[in-house]
Amino acid sequence: MGNKVVRMGYGFVSDVEIVENHKLSLQQNKNYKNDHPPIFYNVKSVSLKTGIGRNKIYSLLREFNYIDDNNFPFQEYIDEGYFKYYQILSKGIISISPKGISLITSL
Question: How many structural domains are present in the chain?
Answer without folding.
Answer: 2
